[in-house]
Amino acid sequence: MSASDNRAAYAPADPLARAAQLYARLAIGAAFLSAVAARFGLWGTRSSWKNFADFERYTAQVCAFMPAAAIPFLAWSATVGETAFGVALIAGFRLRASALGAAGLLFMFATAMAISQGIKSPLDYSVYSGSAAALLLALSVPPAASAPR
Question: Is 2 within the bounds of a domain?
């Protein structure tokens, strides 16, 4: 692998595996970016949130066990993480690290949902499933293919 290859996504030799990897990258990345767009009202009336203040209120519900003073930090941290992982996954940038980060972020979100709203909520919204898909995506990339040189 040449030095320039470390910026490109690793592609498995099997065509079905390549398609599955691309599908997972695009689906998870697009879901993150769609959620970020929603909290800034970019989806218009189709959005769950009309503005970031609405998203902060939702963050307070999901993280009901956290102090109120931590909510703005958590809301912005989630937004920055989802934006970074969404763009990186779609671009195939540092795919293993990006997918591991996405898996961790989704796992933390699902667990916060389970603590505050009960286990049914993250199961109904497939948040643990998304985390598992991101973890499988990360494991589909050999560590050396994702490491900078």
Answer: no
Which residue type sits at 15?
Answer: P
- Residue pair 130/106 in contact by the 8 Å Cβ criterion: yes
How far from 30 is each of 57, 82, 88, 148, CA to CA, in Å?
23, 10, 11, 25
Specify if 34 maps to a domain. yes
Q: Are 85 and 102 a contacting pair, CB within 8 Å?
A: yes
63 in helix, strand or coil? coil
Total-model pTM: 0.88
pLDDT of 19 strictly over 60: yes
In a domain, 114, yes or no: yes
Domain count for the chain: 1
59 occurs within a structural domain: yes
The whole-angstrom separation of Cα 137 and Cα 90 is 12
